[in-house]
Design a protein that fits this description.
The chain is α/β, with parallel strands linked by helices and 219 residues long. It contains 9 helices and 7 strands, in the order H-H-E-H-E-H-E-E-H-E-H-H-E-H-H-E.
Length: 219
């Protein structure tokens, strides 16, 4: 059976998804981790740029403490959140990073890079949009986790999301970002019993999802 990947029409995708599930406010590991990392590293009053609003789970957690900006390709999502206290630009990140006329203290790419045709191109543009000492926070699913490797070994195609346009291994993503940033912290889920230790020590192999916090130099 042929396998195809990528979303051709994000407005239609979000229209269908909202009709099926609505906009949920349930927080998962990565949402709690983003809030925790941001609170620890970023003082109130700083500016944040979010790549893709998604279901808007970060807005209410951040809008009272930070200046919020977002890039979003779907007008359906923009219509949902345009009055929630953030500056939004409609833009396709496949065309590069758009200019807001300001630089940011934190840029968040949560489950976004694998939707792009050329993630490395976008990553290379991030430093120019960060203030000195600014942070780049990346969350992504680990396509090389043990359970997916095990399925391949058994001749089974893993359950990769059909929405993904590009597949980056943790090493590929990490090395791409290390060309421009220093790695500050790595987080992996702690809630999967029996794998916590291995996911923490060997995240490339055992973590189902990984969060990297990178920092730009201060010069």
């Amino acid at each position: 059976m042929a396998k195809t990947f990528g979303v051709k029409d994000y407005d239609q995708y979000w229209t269908d998804r909202i009709a099926q599930r609505g906009i949920t406010d349930t927080f998962g590991f990565r949402h709690h981790a983003i809030i925790s990392l941001t609170s620890r590293y970023l003082p109130p009053g700083k500016s944040i740029l979010d790549f893709g609003i998604g279901q808007g789970k970060m807005i209410d957690s951040f809008k009272e403490r930070y200046k919020l900006y977002a890039v979003e390709t779907s007008q359906v999502i923009i219509d949902q959140f345009q009055d929630r206290g953030m500056i939004i630009k409609k833009h396709d990140l496949n065309e590069g990073l758009c200019d807001f006329g300001v630089k940011f203290d934190l840029i968040i790419a949560s489950y976004v890079l694998h939707h792009l045709i050329d993630p490395a191109r976008l990553i290379s543009q991030v430093p120019d949009h960060l203030n000195p000492g600014g942070y780049f926070l990346v969350c992504f699913p680990n396509i090389m986790s043990f359970n997916k490797r095990w399925k391949f070994m058994r001749g089974i195609f893993p359950n990769f999301s059909g929405r993904h346009q590009n597949f980056l291994t943790p090493g590929e993503l990490r090395n791409c970002c290390l060309k421009y940033f220093e790695l500050v912290e790595t987080l992996t889920p702690r809630h999967v019993a029996g794998t916590r230790y291995f996911a923490r020590v060997f995240p490339d192999i055992f973590a189902k999802e990984i969060i990297y916090l990178f920092q730009k130099g201060s010069n």
